[in-house]
From TrEMBL:
Name of the molecule in the record: ornithine aminotransferase
GO cellular component term of the entry, any: cytoplasm
GO molecular function: identical protein binding; ornithine aminotransferase activity; pyridoxal phosphate binding
UniProt cross-references to CDD domains, sorted A to Z: OAT_like
InterPro entries noted in UniProt: Aminotrans_3 (IPR005814), Class-III_PLP-dep_AT (IPR050103), Orn_aminotrans (IPR010164), PyrdxlP-dep_Trfase (IPR015424), PyrdxlP-dep_Trfase_major (IPR015421), PyrdxlP-dep_Trfase_small (IPR015422)
Length: 423
């Protein structure tokens, strides 16, 4: 097994190891440059990026339109705080609310902050609009969820690593199995339910893809029981799954129509990651007035949220998604990828399954969750020029930038299959 690291790379790894907290376990590769679907390490070796920073880099590395917008704004005005107005925020707020068709946006920076924001909005809505008794509001979440790393969010995780010894935990959450309509309806019948917080596909859990109609069921049940349907599209949103939003399902409109049979419109939409094109932290919560207006001055905020650089970057990042038809590209290349992987799996004992939607996919390795087979495959993929990481012990996620073309994808499929055949 080739795990040899060149000495220059090793020096950078040693620096992180000595001076940085050990809260990650990165694949041993040290990157110094990115362009489109490619990244280069400090030795000059080129790789296909098949993680895209957990789908933050949907538009490809260092997209000139996004970097250009960021540079231009950075040289003009970077931060005013929300104590004053600036000439970018309102323009951005109009742009993003038109784009996703909600009345209002609340801008934040990271995904976890946006999830926290959605939780606060849902609770306040429950008390002030639904009439839930003070401090009694509950939010339904799904087993194996991933919504970020804050104290409240890990309180309703069932990942031991994320939770253990970080208590006491924030109360007010009810857990149901993912993709289980009956359990969801039972939970929604409970008292004091503010809403349902759910990922359209569970990315971190291993690209766990629910039944085609699960989002529709979530929408219908939340309406039936007067609870907010809160979609965490931080990883699935912004073209990744072959539609502008994963709640758009199989519709080919890229989220720009309102065909009710396919679009399960959430009450609260949470975006992050690719909203930034990978350039700068930007997240957002979108909702209509009757929900968003429960937040009044002084009740929520962030020093950097909605700053001019973030506003410029997010508009450029969303422009790229539309201009370059990234949703359509993800949809077409995604089906092609799964088709090719399924052909391979027919004759493979190593891989049991490929699943996903658009260009958010994963393969399941025929080994235990505790085995290091998936990790070793990722090391071999790295040696062969492609970077991916296991999500759980035996699952490898494949999520390249959406600016990939068919020739590049063919080369990647060849690398992946050749690597798997070496095992
Ligand atoms: C990444 C992610 C988050 C957290 O985003 P951060 O920017 O890392 O805080 C939340 N929800 C989902 C579904 C994610 O994939």
């Amino acid at each position: 097994m080739s795990t040899q690291i060149a000495s220059k790379s090793q020096e950078f790894i040693d620096l992180e190891d000595k001076h940085g907290a050990h809260n990650y376990h990165p694949l041993p590769v040290v990157l110094e440059k990115g362009d489109g679907v490619y990244v280069w390490d400090v030795e000059g070796k080129r790789y296909y990026d098949f993680l895209s920073a957990y789908s933050a880099v949907n538009q490809g590395h260092c997209h000139p339109a996004i970097v250009g917008a960021m540079n231009k704004q950075a040289q003009t005005l970077t931060l005013t705080s929300r104590a004053f107005h600036n000439d970018k925020l309102g323009v951005y707020e109009k742009y993003i609310t038109d784009y996703f068709k909600f009345d209002k946006v609340l801008p934040m920076n990271t995904g976890a902050e946006a999830v926290e924001t959605a939780i606060k909005i849902a609770r306040k809505w429950a008390y002030e609009k639904k009439g839930v008794a003070e401090t009694e509001a509950k939010i339904i979440v799904c087993e194996n969820n991933f919504h970020g790393r804050t104290t409240t969010i890990i309180s309703f995780s069932n990942d031991e690593g994320a939770r253990k010894n970080f208590g006491p935990y924030t109360p007010g959450f009810v857990k149901v199995p993912y993709d289980d309509a009956e359990a969801l309806e039972e939970a929604l019948k409970g008292d004091n339910i503010a809403g349902l917080l759910v990922e359209p596909i569970q990315g971190e859990a291993g690209v766990y893809t629910p039944s085609d109609d699960f989002m529709k069921i979530c929408r219908e049940l939340c309406s039936k029981y007067n609870a907010l349907f809160i979609a965490d599209e931080i990883q699935t949103g912004i073209a990744r799954t072959g539609a502008l939003l994963a709640v758009c399902g199989k519709c080919s409109c890229q989220g720009h129509c309102e065909r009710q049979e396919t679009y399960s419109r959430p009450d609260v939409l949470i975006l992050g990651k690719a909203l930034s094109g990978g350039a700068y932290p930007v997240s957002a919560v979108l909702a209509d007035d009757e929900i968003m207006n429960v937040i009044k001055p002084g009740q929520h905020g962030s020093t950097f949220g909605g700053n001019p650089v973030a506003a410029a970057v997010a508009m450029a990042a969303l422009d790229v998604v539309k201009d370059e038809n990234l949703a359509q590209n993800a949809r077409e290349l995604g089906s092609y990828f799964r088709e090719k992987m399924n052909d391979y799996i027919q004759n493979s004992d190593l891989v049991t399954l490929v699943r996903g939607r658009g260009l958010l996919n994963a393969i399941v390795i025929n080994d235990s969750e505790e085995s290091d087979t998936a990790w070793n495959i990722c090391l071999k993929l790295r040696d062969n020029g492609l970077l991916a990481k296991p999500t759980h012990g035996n699952i490898i996620r494949f999520a390249p930038p959406l600016v990939m073309n068919k020739e590049q994808l063919d080369e990647c499929i060849e690398i992946i299959i050749r690597t798997l055949e070496e095992f």
